[in-house]
Amino acid sequence: MEKDSIHYKGCQVTYWTHEKDGFFIAEAIIHCNHLDDDKIPHISGKAFTNLGDAEKYILNEAKTWIDAKERSIAKRQ
C-alpha cells in the first residue's frame, strides 16, 4: 500500500490503493487548513477491476469534496 499525494486548491490529498478479492479500492485523506474544518475527511472509493480507474475515482471524489466545502464557506460569508 504505497501512498501518493496531489495538491488541489491549496489542499493536500493523500491517497492509496489496496487490493481485495481481485478488486482495487482507493482511499484518500484531505488536509486543508484554509477550509477551517475541524475534521480531516477520509474518503473510501468503490471497487474497480482497474487500478487507474480506482485512483481516478478517488481523486475526483476528493476534488468534489474540496469544491463543495469552498462553496459552503463562501455562502456563509
By DSSP, the count of extended strands is 4
Question: What is the structural class?
Answer: alpha+beta
Our estimate of the beta-strand percent is 35-45%
* Order of the strands making up the biggest sheet: 1-2-3-4
Q: What's the SSE pattern? A: EEEEH
Given as residue ranges, the uncertain stretches (5+ residues, pLDDT < 50) are none
Number of domains: 1
Organism: Piscirickettsia salmonis
Protein name: PEP-CTERM domain protein
Mind explaining what this structure looks like?
The chain is an alpha+beta fold and 77 residues long. It has one domain. 34% of the residues lie in helices and 42% in strands. The protein is built from one helix and four strands; from the N terminus they run ββββα. A four-stranded antiparallel beta sheet has the order 1-2-3-4, with helices on one face. It is elongated and about 45 Å long. It starts with a strand and ends with a helix. The relative contact order is 0.22. The mean pLDDT is 91.
